[in-house]
Design goal:
about 55% helix
């Protein structure tokens, strides 16, 4: 039997629910404005760490949260956390745009020398991608091409797409990259031969092309979180990458977002060596992460290590 759906609540009722559970509402009207603009459910992800833990004998139950708040929890603090997270998402998207554009060109330049329409030529890829039949009767390359053609059709009225389709019947790969999304890029890179992947990976200081493919998949996950305005600062990363070689990398937790910000910085050090992106991340952490009296949140939940600023990666 399906459980009864929770009843609708007015904005005033929502504020009173939070207040009754122990959240300090410093400015009633301000709280109402945020609930109207962002919604109760979205904000609930930011007040979740402020909720009390259940008292239980077994460790699993002890990790569950109660509805009421830790003493000293304030609505203003969770809004500061939301604003910090918003700025963090924008910073991530700034880096990921540059990485996506550079990787598109890397792939197109390498494969395009071999065949102007290499993305459509199965002979340009590893057999696991272009020959091996999956359970649905198609190769991974065929499924990629289906998605690619969908993107081309959606862009059919775009002048550069219409021109190349009408005149040549195919978008050369250096043009086709303009209709790819990050997921399509990471999938196609993963389907390249070992030699081709390694050739591109070495540019970014990674000798293993398969590892770089993992990095791109994980960064695509981060990109989707940021682009859909979801909570990023302490998200549990589902599509995790292996740690690169090197001493300081081994200190990081690949389930935490900061590891993937380190990967972004690794790419940016090559793509934009004079970029201030790393300094902007440090400034954001220093100036915008809220320090709360109730101790409900800590910047370590982002995945930071104590000595990260001294790493060559960030200097």
């Amino acid at each position: 039997m399906t459980a009864e759906v929770k009843p609708w609540k007015s904005i005033d009722e929502q504020v009173e629910i939070l207040r009754s559970r122990g959240l300090q509402i410093e400015e009633y009207d301000r709280a109402k404005r945020y609930l109207k603009r962002l919604g109760y459910y979205r904000l609930s992800g930011y007040w979740y760490p402020f909720r009390r833990f259940r008292e239980a004998d077994n460790s699993q139950a002890a990790e569950q949260r109660r509805d009421d708040f830790i003493e000293g929890s304030r609505f203003g603090d969770l809004i500061k956390l939301y604003v910090f997270d918003k700025k963090l998402r924008l910073l991530a998207l700034d880096a990921l745009e540059r990485i996506e554009m550079a990787m598109r060109v890397d792939v197109a330049h390498l494969l395009g020398e071999r065949d102007a329409c290499a993305h459509e030529n199965p002979n340009c890829f590893h057999g696991n991608f272009s020959i091996r039949i999956k359970n649905d009767g198609k190769t991974a390359h065929q499924k990629w091409l289906e998605k690619y053609q969908q993107q081309v059709r959606r862009s059919a009225r775009t002048p550069f797409v219409a021109h190349h389709q009408d005149k040549y019947g195919c978008l050369p790969i250096w043009v086709a990259i303009e209709v790819w999304d990050f997921g399509m890029l990471s999938t196609l890179y993963d389907g390249m031969t070992f030699e081709d992947k390694r050739s591109i990976a070495l540019k970014y200081g990674e000798p293993n092309g398969n590892k770089l493919a993992n990095y791109l998949r994980s960064l695509n996950f981060i990109r989707n979180v940021a682009a859909h305005h979801a909570r990023l600062w302490n998200v549990n990363v589902v599509d995790r990458s292996p740690l690169p070689g090197g001493t300081y990398w081994q200190q990081l937790n690949n389930a935490r977002p900061f590891f993937y910000f380190c990967l972004m910085q690794m790419f940016l050090k090559v793509i934009c060596p004079t970029s201030t992106w790393g300094a902007r991340l440090a400034k954001l952490i220093d100036e915008d992460f809220p320090v709360v009296g109730c101790g409900a949140i800590k910047v370590g939940d982002f995945g930071l290590t104590d000595d990260w600023r001294s790493w060559e990666l960030w200097t």
